[in-house]
Design goal:
Layout: H1 2-32, E1 37-51, E2 56-61, E3 68-69, E4 74-79, H2 81-106, H3 110-143, H4 148-177, H5 181-206, E5 209-211, E6 216-221, E7 228-229, E8 234-251, E9 263-268, E10 273-284, E11 292-293, E12 301-302, E13 304-311, E14 323-328
């Protein structure tokens, strides 16, 4: 009887020992197995902001949030009466400069040329008479019947009439030739300057009609009809849907295997499917970013890196802001 009790005690002790070993193995396996590593990111998209170079009041909005627009589509129309006034001023200056340039190129009027010609002919006739008088007085002086005083007076009169004739001829030539080349060049420069001012105002006029530069989706509209917007103030944002990527914030101890050109298999909860993305950007986020000490004593710190990856192919239904999940098995 005592032997049977001893056998039972041995069996119980052995069972307890085996149970303790099994429990120890299970606990060791649990502590040895590291949990799955999860890195979460989200989808981002390129955007450009629509704004005007000139201040104005929103006259009409041609699109609303969610609309898909193509390059060249009209987005908004602004009312800028000050620009219209400047255009009128610039056109007036251009017309005045053109008239001055035309006048310089055309030269004097026909009446002025004719008047200058008549004065030249009059001076020429006076010079011929003075020349004849001088020649007669000179012959008489040579014969000794005329004093030197009279001969000198006749010579002075002749020379004066010669100078007057030359002056009249110069006035006639100037009327025929018109303005000097320098004056014509200056007038032409004034015209170019005025045309430049007109082109500048016209460029401002084009800014009153905002046109889509690239195909995209209207993500946000900031201004309302009737509101006044200043120079450079945002009117709306356009998202370039064809330019999407995923952004992940990854600690440097999780960067193993992640490098430029790496293909990532990520899960999209919104689409409930996995996507293939290719890494094209890796950069540390600087000292301001979240970091983690490897030990409580802070032996060294782990920086956070920004990793960007683009889909290898177009994904229908993928939208900005959707979450992307990277799962990694730490036991591999």
């Amino acid at each position: 009887m005592a032997t049977k009790r001893q056998v039972n005690n041995i069996i119980l002790a052995l069972a307890a020992f085996i149970g303790a070993v099994v429990v120890f193995i299970v606990i060791g396996a649990i502590f040895k197995h590291k949990p799955e590593e999860v890195i979460q990111g989200d989808v981002e998209v390129s955007e450009y902001r629509v704004s005007s170079k000139v201040p104005g009041r929103i006259l009409e909005l041609k699109v609303k949030e969610g609309d898909y627009v193509h390059a060249g589509d009209t987005l908004a129309i602004l009312d800028a009466p000050e620009v219209n006034a400047k255009q009128t001023q610039a056109l007036s200056v251009e017309n005045a400069a053109s008239a001055m340039s035309q006048m310089a190129n055309n030269g004097a009027r026909s009446e002025q040329i004719q008047g200058a010609y008549e004065l030249w002919q009059q001076a020429k006739a006076g010079m011929e008479i003075a020349e004849k008088s001088y020649n007669r007085v000179q012959r008489l002086y040579d014969e000794g019947v005329m004093t030197a005083q009279k001969r000198d007076e006749a010579l002075a009169n002749f020379e004066a009439m010669q100078a007057q004739c030359k002056a009249a001829k110069s006035q006639y030539d100037m009327a025929v030739n018109g303005a000097r080349s320098e004056e014509r060049a200056a007038a032409a420069a004034k015209v170019n300057q005025a045309r430049g001012a007109v082109q500048e105002v016209r460029s401002y006029m084009r800014e009153t009609v905002q046109i889509a530069q690239i195909d995209g989706e209207v993500s946000e509209v900031f201004a309302k009809v009737g509101e006044l917007v200043g120079t450079g103030s945002p009117i709306m944002n356009i998202s370039i849907i064809n330019d999407m990527w995923g952004t992940f914030n990854v600690r440097e101890d999780q960067l193993r295997g992640l490098k430029m050109g790496t293909t990532l298999r990520v899960y999209s909860p919104a689409l409930d499917k996995e996507l293939d993305l290719k890494v094209y950007y890796i950069k540390d986020q600087g000292s301001y970013a979240t970091w983690k000490a490897t030990k409580t004593t802070g032996q060294y710190d782990l920086k956070t890196f920004e990793v960007k990856a683009r889909p290898l192919q177009k994904v229908d239904g993928l939208r900005p802001g959707m979450s992307l999940i990277i799962r990694r098995d730490n036991n591999q």
